[in-house]
Amino acid sequence: MLLKNIQLFTLMAAAQAASVVVSVYPQETSTRVGTDNVVLITRTREAAVTEQPHDHTHEHSHEHEHSTATATGQTTAVTGCHFHGDTQFCIDGNGVEGVIVGGATASADAPESYTGCHVHDAAETYCLDASGEEVQFKGEEASSSSSSSSSSDKKGKNCHFHAGVEHCIGGDEHENEAKCDKVDRDYNIPLRIGLLFVILVTSAIGSFGPMVLTSLLNLSFESIGFTIVKQFGTGIVISTAFVHLITHAQLMWSNKCMGELAYESTGTAITMAGVFIAFLLEYIAKRLLGSRHDAVSKARSTTDEASGSNSDIEANAKQNNEVTTVDPEKGVVHDHHGHGLLIPDDSISVTTMEAGIIFHSILIGITLVVAGDSFFITLFIVIIFHQMFEGLALGSRIAQLDSASWFKKCLMAAGFAVVTPVGMAIGTGVLSKFNGNDKSTLIALGTLDSFSAGVLIWTGIVEMWANDWLFGNLASSGPVKTCIAIFSLMVGMLLMSVLGKWA
């Protein structure tokens, strides 16, 4: 017996001299022996001695020497408990210091260790005090991980839908890895079918509104009221091209599931092609109508010398929507096309604009319904305003078509009104198969968005903006009308640009 006591005393003395922790792997019991830097923990496994540094600096800049207990197994006790202020710190069997939650207050009889430690929910460690009450032990590593996780949640991914494709920003690299497989989402089909008719009515109000108002109120196309609607619509079209379509196209072409493009300027090249084709259509139409007019005017100038024929020539010119004057002495017709293209209220010009808007609107319909339910209502509200504003822009130009019959005007307005609901119906039909991250889907959406952007850039800037302000009535309008018009133009741009955050 005396020999065993001598051996134990020798072991403790050696540990104290080397500033080490002696662990004899306990069975849920621990005893503080001697000085603060030696803790004897009784366990059922073989003894192991691990050397540890004992200098430690807390967050409160307080130097404190303590021992750390390490073990290869799960911690069953925390020891070396001490206070900094009102917070009690202890050390687990792995040498990790942590905080005791729900333990004793700072006092002389506060426990220096807790036993019976166990894990709840595979993450939270609980121990027992002398009276058998549970306290929680939060290690510094767990606290740091929890804080980091909380910070990550606050600065985590922000996902939203653009053109039916989920676009995420923020988060870590692992979160942002390309996931190109189809994502199964919850879709409320009856809700989508019901809201299809809401979009139909909203689009119709926008496109038919200007025509109905000008007819009922007998508004002049040069009035301030019509100018406000017209310039607001011009701003809508320009913002749609730049903020919505080009942005959407860029998101498609830069999607990680698209892979690396062999030609990086694919999207902008297609946009340029859209501008060129819109120009080419109007130029060819202008040359064809011009040639037809020249042939008619030449024939009449040589065969009709009577002054009464001049009125016939002027009437024919009006049917072709040309600004025409007649020389009464020579019977010669002179054309004045302003900037050299069709004037903006020509049916060819308006049809070109409508084609660009329709391409865009059918995509809106398809991609609206494929958005997940968590984002669908928000996107739907945005699309309502989007369609109404675009309808006003198109309807204000359709209303100006003097040469078009009322039936043709209604047909053009109806075309815009139904195209988005048709897109929604198509989208509803392909919900079970639609994969917004499929490469072929991204190419199709990117191509149509880029091309539509080009068409609307030409129509919005050249046929609408430049024509009204450089060659139209606003080129010489009074200061009040000019200020109101420019303000309406800016409001249209601003509102549509704000909507670009969500759609």
From TrEMBL:
Keyword terms of this UniProt record: Membrane, Signal, Transmembrane, Transmembrane helix
Any one Pfam family match given in the protein's UniProt record, by short name: Zip
UniProt cross-references to PANTHER family, sorted A to Z: PROTEIN ZNTC-RELATED, ZINC/IRON TRANSPORTER
Compartments in which it is found: Membrane
Domain of life: Eukaryota
Biased composition (Polar residues): 304-321
GO cellular component, one term: plasma membrane
Stored InterPro entries: ZIP
Membrane-protein topology: Multi-pass membrane protein
UniProt region (Disordered), positions on chain: 50-72, 300-321
Biased composition annotated in UniProt, kind: Basic and acidic residues: 50-67
MF GO annotations: zinc ion transmembrane transporter activity
Extent of the signal sequence: 1-17
Name assigned to this protein: Zinc-regulated transporter 2
Keyword Transmembrane helix carried by entry: yes
Membrane-crossing segments per the record: 193-220, 232-253, 265-285, 362-386, 406-430, 442-466, 478-499
